[in-house]
Amino acid sequence: KAGELVHNFAKYLRGNFGELDNPKPILMSQEMEHVHHYISIENVRFPDMTFSFEMNSDDFHIPALTIQPIVENAIKHGLMRLQHGGNIRVLSYETDESYCVLVEDDGVGFDTSAQKPRDGRSHVGMENTKRRIAEMCSGEIIIESAVGKGTLATIIIPKGGTV
Question: Cα separation of 110 and 148, whole Å?
Fold first, then answer.
């Protein structure tokens, strides 16, 4: 188990360092490989959390390191504040106009109208992710949340929007 953890951690780091300066979007399937390495590490730390994936579409481009930070936020700010457990679901699909990715958790949720998160930290990471989606794919991220119910992040990338 330790060997598998080290293997996944190495692949996770390699994916992070390899994509840090990538100015072009990557295939969603590549992004999901990175997410799976990250989740395999977190699953060792938090074995009572569950993760599910429904990839109905993954043959489109997305900025590298887009889904993983959203999943990380779901764990850190949603599920880790629960007494135990919690679920994260990642779903992708396409419509006639766009590609969509949903990252949903059943964690503690938050008040989306609040100026600052309850922990006083800024939203810099999410703002950077939103900016990269807009600049590289003409897309957007919509965050919906309800205290006590969880959070849903929806990424919408228009077809033909990749720069």
Answer: 8
pLDDT, position 125: 77
- Taking each helix axis from N to C end, the angle separating 2-19 and 28-45, rounded to the nearest 10 degrees, works out to 140
User: In which residue are the tokens 């006590």 written?
Assistant: 148
DSSP letters of 26-91?
EEHHHHHHHHHHHHHHHHHH-TT-EEEEEES---SEE-TTSHHHHHHHIIIIIITTSSS--EEEEE
Low-confidence ranges of the chain (pLDDT < 50): none
Q: How far apart are CA 155 and CA 103, in angstroms?
A: 8
DSSP 99-125: EEEEEEE-S----TT-SS-TT----HH
